[in-house]
Write a structure and sequence with these properties.
The protein is α/β, with parallel strands linked by helices. It contains eleven helices and 18 strands. The chain is globular.
Length: about 325
Amino acid sequence: MQAVWLENQRLTVRQDLPIPHPAPGFALLKLRLAGICSTDLELVRGYYPYNGVPGHEFVGEVAEVNVDQALALSWIGQRVVGEINLTCGTCTACLDGRSTHCEQRTVLGIANHPGVFAEYLTLPLRNLHRVPDNIPDEAAVFTEPLAAALEIQQQVQIHPSDRVLVVGAGRLGLLIAQALALTGCDLQVVVRRQAPRALLQGWGIACIESQAVSEGSMDVVVEVTGSPEGFALARKAVRTRGTLVLKSTYAGSMQVNFSSIVVDELTLIGSRCGPFAPALKLLADRRVDPRPLIVQSYPLAQGVEAFEHAGRAGALKILLTSL
């Protein structure tokens, strides 16, 4: 099997990996499309000590299911997307409804479970969501990051009267902006480059330069840059008793003045995975169309080149395909 392989922060393309065998309750999936995201790039930079096949954004086709025959037949050949957290279902977090924080979890392409940048992958059947026929692969591949964007609205109640700022107009930031725009809030996005500016303007979303951001002017600020500079700007923009949502995972650390966070009584929220069903509905209803973010597709054989392209400043979505 062909796959992109990460080991000791170095990427290669391997041809010698065996096709995985699905464990009981698991499905074997044939990859159709996969997306490279900022977390994948940060893994290469050492964000988390992971060796193996990376990648977690995908749309695939069910090739085999290790369950009883009647159930298996209902899944074979189906186009699917999959939730990335593999959970135990029995720990305190799972029983409390916090399964994405399962105490025994592994994470697709991030922690102790091979990822999607391969011809085949496995996931538990319970992690899979069928893709409606009217969603093309090029949109379905965005289901996981769109779900992550929607998680913000699961954590923070956004009102039409709220002044909301998104700091970072990259791959995830643009999806977050599209999702937040549906709330009717007073939304602005900090933009540095022309390509995302053109997309945002086409969607009717206001753009702002970083130097034009006023101190303490925003009720809710979402930081999606993955940089200390982005955090500093987000911190500057949020008002007293406002909410700062952190969406970035990246290698490295930053200095934070926590005394000012205490004095200003800020609500600081980390935000990660989100709900797949609402994401798929938005895609099916065409209320969010992520396809304009796609820059280029590469075959798995050119996975290293694809990562290099995705890592260029300002690059939006780079896809990998095994078809």
